[in-house]
Design goal:
- By secondary structure, the protein is an alpha+beta fold.
- The chain folds into 3 domains: 3-57, Winged helix-like DNA-binding domain superfamily/Winged helix DNA-binding domain (Arc Repressor Mutant, subunit A); 66-274, BirA Bifunctional Protein, domain 2, CATH 3.30.930; 279-324, SH3 type barrels (Roll).
- The chain has 11 helices and 14 strands.
- The longest helix is centred in the last third of the chain and has 22 residues, at 243-264.
- It starts with a helix and ends with a strand.
Length: 328
Amino acid sequence: MTRRGDVLRLLADGELHSGEELATRLAISRAAVWKQMRRLGDWGIELQATPGRGYRLVEPIELLEPAAIQCALPQIAAARLRHLEVQEALDSTSDRLLAVTDLPAGRFDVCLAEFQLAGRGRRGRRWLAPFASGLCLSVNWSFRDAPAALGALSLAAGVAILRALRKFEVAGLALKWPNDVVHAGRKLGGILIDMRGEAAGPAYVVVGVGINLRLPERIRARLRADGIEATDLATLAGDIPRRNALAAALVNELALALEEFASRGLAGFSDEWRDADALAGQPVRILQGTQAVEGYARGVDTDGALLVDSGGMRRRVVSGEVSVRPLP
């Protein structure tokens, strides 16, 4: 952990800590403590400084611990896990796993980060999340033979996320095609699938997941300016899930879903997807480059394509930016 991370670990309890105490415990000068406090702002961390008394976080944080996550994994997932790492800060958890070239079939790796410098969302958007304000994790998997409907993997991953969140009694969640977890139309999390391989051969995939636990208003405002209404588990749940416990639940469900998808494709998830479909029967507009398709969403097919009734015919939509809006 970096010196900045060492300072943050001491502040994580949300209590007031004097500069003198921090300097003594870290064996550095008070000027060095002040320097690290200023650097915490680069991670989006909000601090309160009380003259003559010290510093405290606006909200306490639970840091991720690899051992705690691994201990919370059920036996089957733990046996298939090859490597799990928690990074203080890196560009992207998915990019890190995309560099892996030696993953055996039936095993998986996990990468989590407290802060992503260049976290990726769909269509080149940046995933915005201050340090430890949510969960940013990626899981990899090698398919011996690429499933015919590999494009539907994001839908299966969405169902896996709902299965995990259900264990923490988070109600009212839905899935917005193709890769958003939403509540009342507001985005709680997102999924990004990266893959390499051939259509008729082995395939290597990385499933990236971002979930908002406690999203500051300034970040919500930035997202709102981009047309995205966001929410977080602090708003939806009576008790915010412990980050390490939630991370373990997500890893477990994603690993199980990847194995099930390898054998059954979307079939093992279609009923749950249908029950959670946020777009079902809704008037939608899908942007595809400079073109737009408008109609009514009618679920998905076995390959994960969105079905839209438009202009008297049913169309398959395999990609695009979807919004719900009244039709003229």
